[in-house]
Every structure is written in structure tokens, then in C-alpha cells.
Design brief:
The complex is a heterotrimer of chains A (331), B (316) and C (444). In chain A, 63% of the residues lie in helices and 0% in strands. Chain A has 331 residues and is mostly helical. Chain B has 316 residues and is an all-alpha fold. Chain B is 67% helix and 3% strand. In chain B, helix 5 crosses helix 10. The longest helix of chain B has 33 residues. The termini of chain B are close together. Chain C is α/β, with parallel strands linked by helices and 444 residues long. In chain C, 43% of the residues lie in helices and 11% in strands. In chain C, strand 4 and strand 5 form a beta hairpin. In chain C, helix 9 packs across helix 16 and helix 15 runs antiparallel to helix 16. The chains are: A mainly alpha (331), B mainly alpha (316), C alpha/beta (444). At the A-B interface, helix 1, helix 2, helix 5, helix 6 and helix 7 of A face helix 1, helix 3, helix 4, helix 5 and helix 6 of B.
Chain lengths: 331, 316, 444
């Protein structure tokens, strides 16, 4: 297309400012936010900045932070807005209008029990299902991938190189390609509409094994040798020596898997059938369809769905960073 | 890693505590699972690439015709161009931005570094499809957050129809992707920057090197392994782009490809062949074409950065 | 802490165990009875209504029916995967837009049940709006029943158009009349009509009104027939020309917001859109009204159609006869005196249903117009929209052609526009023809 941004259909745009009911100019808000963050930073800084460069750095970081946080703040503002005014205000309406524009209507609709053949279902059920699938998948993958990683990191054996090439190659193929044959397998195994279809095929992944292998290579061989001389079995070595040493990597891996599973979309859509077994992303996607989309309900659900992952990340922040360091940096 | 460590482990002759089957036992879950859930679909997809299919039974051998069709199809070319554009934007905008953020954050020693790391990483708690859907609301003309922001900032953009204008769809996808992943890659770079030797930086400074030279000659070599890792991994995933434009565009007109296929990607093309048209044969051929492209690109990347060779068999 | 994986994984393990127990105990509370029939739909609103209606069907036949909702892409993906591999299928499927996705192979390999004889035996083509079967058949073989008619009217801000501007809309018979009346009232901040910048449904709808479908009954590509030039040139003039009357407000909530702000006065209203505006712009209560579409030529067709849902049964169903009964129960029989149609604001394609008194209900939102009656009066004029397995491809190509024409119009104005439009649509249509010609399975 020969079109340039903005020029393409600009002629159709009204020349004057359309009806706007927004109180605060977004740029003022943006600058205020950035300045506030910069100010807090200055206040907390033990070594008072002496050069303009430092002020500039704080301002830049503050701007970036506001830009990145804005959509998230927008989500959390939107969930209280009535569908009538969802589009009217960028964030929240002016305080004097709060009474007639802010309410819990979105949540009321979200938590209205849904009728199904198996009985009424409340939104919490989907949260519970998602929580179980994500945490169980994390545990299973953590265990099997770390076992595999140990084998690749600390053993030399025939076929090792070929296996690693195979694993690397398998990561290159788009998953969409395998959707139909996988569906066929699940059907043959009788796993349709079960959580096995979601937990088993991904129980040990090439990606996870590689991550653990990278981290475990950093464990000195002498430790293992010493244990072997003392007559320790391989599983004892894995359990007592290796795993405690790669804990940061484990935490990072858990976070990555948990986030991926929590937000998994295609698999649960295809394999799960009974309404009470569905997961949060599957249910949320039903609120946005061509003939009827309910932004308010969708955003409230999303806002709730963010919470568990956010909590996990807050708890694992330190280990996550350290884990990435041991995994990727020493690779 | 540890210079004092003894020679890499080798099965020692004579007294051996571990059976040669131990590693295979440890790898058994992976080998078994991929034997079932990878090898079967793999061969099925390989065979299908030479057929036209419809339903479980209708199969017609077409030889290489699927590949011939794909390579001649204008839509596939569009999808390829879009995907490559995205991958390039990833390499030329996203990664430098992430590195820039990491450097900026690393240049001071405030205790609030953790705070910023958290802020910049926070978008990752939202899933890709949902980021797409959320941005489809943010990019709404006249009422969307993005458009209002641009209007207030530069006095233009309130009426920009991001998702309805072919030339604006790719920028919209790239912006949403920047928001989602800038912080994620930054965390990697930030971790890598910890391994930069401060004394070398000091030494270079004393020798009269400017900040750019220090970056080029000291910082960059130190973070190279991570940079290559992030570069290759993010390229591989950008070639598999699908969920983000899918979420961004599907609500628009019930068509996830965007106007004039401006948001069409290779995986989108594959999805369409398999689940729109119902031709698993054509879809398989697209899959192999994509795998070939990805393999070529990653090997080229590794060759260029000179990290191909030993795959890490022994400890570094 | 002796857990070798660390504190956080230990915590996740606890969560996994606790939620595992939770899942175990909560799932036990749901009935485990295997349903006799499974029905799949992409419309949450429809599902709510079916769940209300189904107990009667279940009593009548002493069976159980499960309704599962999934979004339209997931539904298509799952069905396509099931059809392609011979995997598990639901018995009855409610399909958005077109069943055509599933109709590419030889008839014996289509995963949907052939309903031709059943439809004929039950005289359904006569009892229902015949043109609506166009989307659910291929070369005369019927695979589904239509759920709706979706006639299109124009909805407008009566408080501005009639009260303020004193326009008598009953004088508007053709699009020429409309444009003539609209031009004087357009300002920089007020437009007469809503049209999309990408063509898309708006263009298809106007084409259908003019008698141009994407395909004909034989499944041949027809969107490059000569009349297309008139429609496209008119569209471009109204949206992008120097005397434009139209503006793109997008879809869904931004559109309703724009209607509320009075940026656009008329919008295209298939029946289902009247529900959306009532829901998302409640303060326009009593300010809206409906009128038939202006015709392309004097005395021409005053309506078109936008969107479609239909229902089909699968060949894999264990109870095909019961599945057919279910389809008839939900789509043809009127068990609740039209209440659900009023709720959805959807006109059923069943002639008998329109006789129900419910269809004369005045809608306060639309100044007490009996809007469902108005739609019903237009229903038999709704043009057929024939589907093909290549409908999605044809839609893409149509939009591409439109966008290229729009770019040409921006660059060169009306100089040589008609020739360009003709050539461009021919080129894109030929692309679709090439894709169809490549299909060796259909030729068997």
C-alpha cells in the first residue's frame, strides 16, 4: 500500500476536536507521573545527584515506567466503569461524576453463575481450574526437565549429541502444525475433555531440559565425583547436590512455565469440552465476539487473571533474575 | 567455570558406580513423550505435505504442488514479508531498546533498581492473546488510550485508524510487542551486565575511551553470549508470530488477517490453511517451509556471531 | 527447608496440591451424567436461551442435552481438527457465518450431515425464508438450517434528523435522494452515514443489495460483475470524496459512543445491531428510529443482509435423528411465543413465527416503532448470499481490491477510476478462481 501513516484517510477526519469529556489532559498526567517517579527516586537516592545527567536519567526512567504502566492502570480503571462510560474517559471520570459512572456492574455480570447441564458455574471455578493446571504443569515440568537436564549436563553417553540436535530441531517447528495429529492422538487415547491432554504431552520439554542443562553445567564436577566416591546413588546426587545448587534457575523456570500455562489458549480451547472444566483464558475469550463484545466483563476478568501471576512474580523476583543469570549468562 | 575442577567426567574403566543406562533413564520421560507426541505428528505432517486433504479420508497426491502453490501465492508472500518485517523490528527496535533500558538502569546504583525491573517486566503477566485484545481497544480511533495520548502529545493521531489502515497494522503490532517484551529482554541484559568487569571499564576510561568506545570494546564483548542467546531466541519466536496479531485483529472485523492481509503472518497462513480451508496437506507444506526459513536464519545468526560449534558438551 | 527445589517451587507444590483437591471436590459436585446430545455454539447469548428452552425438549424425548460455548475461532479449529482426523465430534453445531469452511472436499467426505432430503420432506424451504438457505448449502446439497434473516435497515438519530433538522425520511427512496438530503447537513464534526474505511461487511452488504454476491448458486466467483463499479465508486465518493457524507466510526462500543456523541446520524442496522446500541448507549432511549435502506434504483430492493448463524448436525453423531429433531425444535418451533427473539432482537427465518403477537411489540428505544415487524416486512426481499469453501479467501480479496481502489481514488481522484476498479476486481476475482481450480478433490 502506498499509504503514509495518517495521510491515508485523514481527509475523512473532522477538522475540529470532537466532543471530549475528558478532564485531565493525558500529557499533563504523563509528565506528572514521570516527574513524581523521578522525585521519589531523588528522595530515596543516598548519594545526591550532582550532575544534570542524573536528573535526566531519572526523568527518562520515569517516562518509560509511566508508558509501560499506563495500559495496566487503564485496565484497573476500566473495570469499575459502567459500560456506558467505558469509552468516554481515558482513565477515571472526574471525581464529582464517580457516583453515577463507577460501580461493580462488570463484576456482577462476571460472577453471575452460568447455567450448564452439570449445574451452575461461578467464575471462581475457572480460576481454580487454571490455578491447578498451571501449578501442576509447573511441578511436573520442573521435575522431568531437571532430570533430563542433569543427564545432559553431567553424563557423556552414546547418542547424546544426536539427541541434542533432535531437541534443537524440534523447537524449530511451529506448534500449529501438530494441532490436528495431536487432536487425533488425544481422541485415540480417550483424553478428550481431560486435564491429561494438557498436562502429559508437555511434561518434559526440550526447552526446559536445555535451560536446566545450562545451569547444571556450572556445578563443579568435583562435588559429584566426591559424592560418587562416597557411594551416593545418582538420584541422591540429583536430589541432594545438584538441585539445591540450581535453585535460582528452578525458580525462574517455574515462573516462566507458570505464566505460559496460566495464559495457555489454544490447547484448552481444543481439548476441554465440559463447561465446568474450562480455564480462565478460554472463558474470557467468549466475552469478545463479533456480534456481542463486552469490554467491561472481559477487562474485569483479565484484571483478576493478572493477580496470581503478579503475586508469583513479586515473590520470585530475586530468584528469577538470579536464575536467568545462571542459565543464560554462563551458557 | 571452575579452573580447579578435575577433567570432565568420563566413564572410568574398572570401578563404575553408575550404569551406562542411567542418563537414558533420566531422559526417559522426555524420550517417551516425544516418541509419542512428537514423532507421530512429525511423520504425519511430513507425509501430508505431498497431499491435498479434506476430511479424514479424502487424500489426493499432488507431489510438490503444495510447495509450488505456496511460493507462487501472493498471500504467502505478504505473510512472509510481514513476518520478516516483524523479525527485523524485533532485532532493530526491541532488542536495542531493551539493552538501552538495561544500560540506563544499570548506570546508577539506586535501591530502586528492583522497582523499575518490576515495572518494566510487569506487562508479561498478561498473556499474548489478551495483550492483543487489550491493545485492540487501546488503538480505537477517537476513544482509544493510544490515540488520545498521541493527540495530546503531538496534536495529531486522535483519528488514526491503526487497525483499519493497512500501513498502520504492522506498527500497531510492533508497538504492542514492544510494550510486552521490552522489559522481558531487559531482564536478560540486566543480568548479563552484572558480569561486566568494572575494573576493565575503569581501565578503559583511564585510557581515554569515551562512553561509546567503552560500550563497544568492553561491555558488548562481555555480554555477547547473552546477547546472542536473546537474539536467536527472540528471532525464532518472532517467526512464529501468531497470537498477538490474532488477538489484536480478530475483534476488528472477525478477520484476524487485518485489512489487505496487513497483519497476516506465516503461522497465520498455516492456521488458515489447516483450520479455515481444512487442507492439512497445504498446512503441512507451509509448516516445513517455515521450519526451513527458521533453521536457515538461526544458523546464519549463530554463524555470524561465531558461537556455532561446541554445543556445550563440557562445562565452560 | 529441605525441599531440594527451593522455597518458591515448594509453595507452588502446595498450591498444586491444594487446588488439585479443590478441583477434585468441586468437579464431583457437577453432574457426571453423559449427555445424549452435545451441542456446540459460538454465541453465549444463544446458549443462555437454549438452556432455558431445552428442558422441554429433554422431557419430550427423555434425553439430556449439553450446550457448550466456545469462541468462533476455537469452534472452527476444533471441528476442523475433528473432521480431518475422524475424532470426537459434537452432535449438533451452531456455526457463525458460514458452514463453508467444512465443505471443501467431496460430499461424501464432508463432516456435516446431508440434510437435503430431511429439509425437503419437512417442507422447510417453504416454511422458512428460502434465500437464507444460500449460506448453508453447496451445489444444492443442504448442510444446515438458517437461524436468522438479519435484514438491514438504516437506524438514525430521530431527535436530530427529524426534530432538529426537520428532514422527512419517508421522502428518501433511493441512495441518490439520501445523498442529496445528506450533503447540506454534513459539517466537520457531523456526518450523515457510517461506512467502513476497509470496505469489509459494509461493502458486501451494499453489493448484495445491488444483487452482487461473492459467489453464485453454482459456487462460481461473481464479485467482479460490471455493476460492482457503481457500488465501489459510490462508496468511495461518499467516504473519501470532496463532498463526502460518510465517516468510519469502527464497530462495537466506539461506534455506539460515536452515535451518542452525534458524530454520525445514520448507521446500518441489521436486527442484531439494534440490541447492541440499546445495551451500550442506553441514554439514546427514544431518540432512535429505523427506516428501510434507500434503494439503488427507483423501486429497487430496500434491504440487504449482514451476518448469519446456522445449525448443522455431524455425520459422527450417534443420534442423527434426534439431532435433527433438536435443530427443528430450536430453530423452527416457537415454544416461547417469540420471547427469545425479542430478547436477542433477531428475526427468525420462519414465516409462521412472524404471526406471533410478540412481533408487534413497540420498542420504546426506537420511539415505539414495532421494529421486529418492520424487519419481518423486509425479510422476503433479503438477497441470497451464496457461500463457498473459498468465501474467506473471496472476502479477503474483495477487501484488498477495495483498498487498492481507495488508494487509487486518493491519488488520482475520479480520473480513470471506473476502469481501475473494473480491472482490480477482475484481478482479485481471478486469484480466487485460481485457488478453486487448484482443488483436485472437488473435481472428483
Amino acid at each position: 500500500m502506498s499509504a503514509l501513516p495518517g495521510i491515508f484517510f485523514a481527509a475523512a477526519a473532522p477538522a475540529t476536536e470532537p466532543t471530549r469529556s475528558d478532564g485531565l489532559n493525558l500529557i499533563h498526567g504523563f509528565l506528572l507521573g514521570a516527574l513524581a517517579i523521578a522525585a521519589v527516586l531523588l528522595a530515596f537516592d543516598s548519594r545526591r545527584p550532582r550532575v544534570v545527567k542524573r536528573y535526566l536519567r531519572y526523568l527518562l526512567l520515569g517516562c518509560m515506567a509511566v508508558l509501560i504502566l499506563a495500559p495496566l492502570i487503564w485496565i484497573y480503571c476500566s473495570i469499575f466503569k459502567d459500560n456506558k462510560v467505558l469509552m468516554a474517559y481515558a482513565f477515571l471520570p472526574p471525581v464529582e461524576r464517580w457516583g453515577d459512572t463507577l460501580n461493580f456492574d462488570n463484576f456482577r455480570r462476571l460472577f453471575t453463575p452460568r447455567v450448564s447441564l452439570q449445574g451452575p458455574i461461578v467464575f471462581w471455578q475457572y480460576m481454580l481450574n487454571s490455578l491447578f493446571l498451571a501449578s501442576a504443569a509447573t511441578m511436573i515440568q520442573m521435575f522431568f526437565c531437571s532430570l533430563g537436564g542433569y543427564a545432559l549436563a553431567k553424563f557423556r553417553f552414546g547418542g547424546r549429541r544426536q539427541l541434542m540436535l533432535f531437541m534443537l530441531g524440534s523447537m524449530m517447528l511451529p506448534g500449529m502444525l501438530f494441532l490436528a495429529p495431536m487432536f487425533e492422538l488425544m481422541y485415540r487415547f480417550g483424553w478428550m475433555d481431560t486435564y491429561a491432554a494438557l498436562l502429559v504431552p508437555g511434561a518434559a520439554t526440550a526447552f526446559g531440559i536445555f535451560l536446566f542443562k545450562q545451569a547444571m553445567q556450572a556445578v563443579p564436577d568435583s562435588l559429584i565425583e566426591a559424592a560418587r566416591v562416597d557411594g551416593a546413588g545418582e538420584f541422591f546426587i540429583y536430589w541432594r547436590i545438584i538441585m539445591p545448587l540450581v535453585q535460582p534457575m528452578t525458580a525462574a523456570f517455574c515462573l516462566i512455565v507458570f505464566m505460559g500455562q496460566w495464559n495457555a489458549f489454544v490447547g484448552p480451547q481444543i481439548y476441554l469440552q465440559s463447561t465446568y472444566k474450562l480455564t480462565v483464558p478460554v472463558v474470557l475469550s467468549q466475552y469478545m465476539t463479533q456480534y456481542n463484545d463486552d469490554y467491561g466483563m472481559f477487562l474485569s476478568g483479565t484484571a483478576l487473571a493478572i493477580v496470581p501471576v503478579a503475586v508469583l512474580f513479586l515473590a520470585l523476583q530475586r530468584e528469577f533474575i538470579a536464575g536467568l543469570t545462571s542459565g543464560a549468562v554462563k551458557g | 567455570m571452575n579452573p580447579a575442577a578435575p577433567a570432565p567426567l568420563r566413564p572410568r574403566p574398572g570401578r563404575r558406580l553408575t550404569s551406562p543406562w542411567t542418563p537414558w533413564l533420566l531422559l526417559a520421560p522426555y524420550v517417551l513423550l516425544s516418541g509419542v507426541f512428537f514423532v507421530y505428528p512429525f511423520f504425519s505432517a511430513m507425509r501430508l505435505a505431498f497431499y491435498q486433504t479434506a476430511g479424514p479420508h479424502a487424500r489426493a497426491w499432488v507431489g510438490l504442488d503444495n510447495f509450488r502453490f505456496i511460493l507462487g501465492d501472493r498471500d504467502f508472500r505478504t505473510a512472509l514479508v510481514n513476518t520478516v518485517t516483524f523479525a527485523l523490528a524485533n532485532a532493530l527496535i526491541l532488542l536495542p531498546l531493551s539493552l538501552g533500558l538495561a544500560l540506563l538502569l544499570n548506570s546508577g546504583r539506586d535501591r530502586l533498581k528492583g522497582f523499575f525491573r518490576l515495572v518494566f517486566f510487569s506487562p508479561n503477566v498478561v498473556g499474548q492473546v489478551f495483550v492483543g485484545i487489550i491493545f485492540s481497544v487501546i488503538f480505537v480511533p477517537r476513544y482509544g488510550l493510544m490515540n488520545r495520548f498521541l493527540q495530546d502529545l503531538v496534536g495529531w493521531g486522535l483519528e488514526t485508524k491503526w487497525l483499519q489502515t493497512p500501513a498502520m497494522v504492522m506498527p500497531a503490532i510492533i508497538i504492542a510487542n514492544l510494550w510486552l517484551y521490552a522489559g522481558f529482554n531487559m531482564v536478560y541484559f540486566l543480568a548479563a551486565l552484572q558480569s561486566v568487569d568494572e575494573s576493565q571499564v575503569e581501565a578503559a576510561r583511564i585510557d581515554g575511551a569515551g562512553p561509546l568506545q567503552v560500550f563497544w570494546h568492553v561491555t558488548l564483548p562481555a555480554i555477547k553470549p547473552v546477547a546472542v542467546f536473546v537474539f536467536v531466541v527472540s528471532t525464532i519466536s518472532s517467526f512464529q508470530l501468531f497470537e498477538l496479531p490474532f488477538g489484536l485483529l480478530q475483534g476488528n472485523n472477525g478477520n484476524f488477517k487485518g485489512p489487505a492481509n496487513s497483519g497476516y503472518t506465516i503461522v497465520g497462513y498455516l492456521y488458515d490453511a489447516a483450520y479455515g480451508l481444512g487442507d492439512l496437506g497445504l498446512a503441512a507444506a507451509v509448516g516445513w517451509t517455515l521450519a526451513f526459513v527458521m533453521l536457515t536464519v538461526s544458523v546464519a545468526q549463530l554463524k555470524l556471531s561465531g558461537t556455532l560449534g561446541d554445543d556445550g558438551g563440557s562445562s565452560t | 527447608m529441605n525441599f531440594p527445589f527451593g522455597k518458591a517451587p515448594f509453595f507452588i507444590l502446595l498450591v498444586a496440591l491444594a487446588s488439585g483437591l479443590g478441583v477434585f471436590f468441586t468437579h464431583r459436585n457437577y453432574g457426571q451424567n453423559r449427555p445424549t446430545l452435545v451441542m456446540l455454539t459460538a454465541a453465549r447469548l444463544h446458549a443462555d436461551i437454549y438452556l432455558r428452552k431445552l428442558p422441554e425438549f429433554e422431557r419430550r424425548h427423555n434425553v439430556t442435552v449439553d450446550v457448550q460455548v466456545m469462541d468462533q475461532f476455537a469452534l472452527r479449529t476444533r471441528l476442523q481438527a475433528a473432521f480431518a482426523t475422524g475424532g470426537e465430534v459434537p452432535d449438533v453445531v451452531e456455526m457463525p457465518q458460514y458452514a463453508s469452511y467444512f465443505l471443501r472436499g467431496p460430499t461424501k467426505d464432508v463432516g456435516l450431515l446431508d440434510l437435503t432430503d430431511w429439509v425437503k420432506d419437512n417442507k422447510l424451504q417453504e416454511r422458512m425464508v428460502a434465500s437464507r438457505f444460500s449460506m448453508w448449502q453447496r451445489r444444492g446439497v443442504v448442510f444446515g438450517l438458517p437461524h436468522d434473516v438479519h435484514p438491514v435497515m438504516l437506524a438514525y438519530r430521530a431527535d436530530i434528523v427529524e426534530d432538529e433538522l426537520k428532514i422527512d425520511v419517508s421522502k428518501i427512496k433511493t441512495w441518490d435522494d439520501f445523498v442529496a438530503l445528506a450533503r447540506p447537513i454534513v459539517t466537520t464534526n457531523r456526518f450523515a452515514l457510517e461506512l467502513s474505511n476497509v470496505g469489509s461487511y459494509w461493502l458486501s452488504m451494499l453489493m448484495l443489495q445491488r444483487g452482487i454476491g461473492l459467489f453464485n448458486a453454482q459456487g462460481e466467483v461473481t464479485f467482479d460483475q460490471p455493476e460492482i463499479v457503481d457500488v465501489v465508486v459510490w462508496y468511495l465518493q461518499q467516504l473519501l470524496g470532496p463532498q463526502r457524507i460518510a465517516y468510519d466510526l469502527g464497530t462495537n462500543q466506539p461506534l455506539w459512543r460515536g452515535m451518542r456523541d452525534g458524530v454520525v446520524l445514520f448507521f446500518f442496522a441489521p436486527d442484531w445491531r439494534t440490541r447492541s446500541i440499546e445495551q451500550y448507549a442506553p441514554d439514546l432511549q427514544g431518540k432512535m428510529k429505523l427506516m428501510p435502506l434507500p434503494a439503488w434504483t427507483p423501486g429497487g430492493r430496500r434491504t440487504s443482509t449482514w451476518g448469519a448463524t446456522g445449525i448443522g448436525a455431524t455425520k459422527g453423531s450417534r443420534h442423527p435423528d434426534l439431532a435433527k429433531k433438536l435443530m427443528e425444535f430450536l430453530y423452527v418451533e416457537q415454544t416461547d411465543q417469540g420471547k427469545s427473539w425479542m430478547e436477542l432482537h433477531i428475526l427468525p427465518p420462519v414465516h409462521d413465527a412472524w404471526k406471533l403477537p410478540a412481533f408487534d411489540t413497540p420498542f420504546p428505544y426506537f420511539r415505539n416503532q414495532p421494529i421486529m415487524r418492520m424487519y419481518a416486512n423486509l425479510a422476503d426481499d433479503v438477497p441470497p448470499a451464496y457461500a463457498s469453501p473459498y468465501t474467506p479467501k473471496a472476502e479477503d480479496k474483495l477487501n484488498e481490491a477495495f483498498l487498492n481502489c481507495a488508494a487509487y481514488f486518493k491519488a488520482h481522484g475520479e480520473d480513470g477510476l471506473r476502469e481501475f476498479v473494473r480491472a482490480e476486481f477482475k484481478r482479485q476475482a481471478n486469484d480466487v478462481r485460481a485457488a478453486i481450480a487448484r482443488n483436485v478433490l472437488m473435481q472428483q
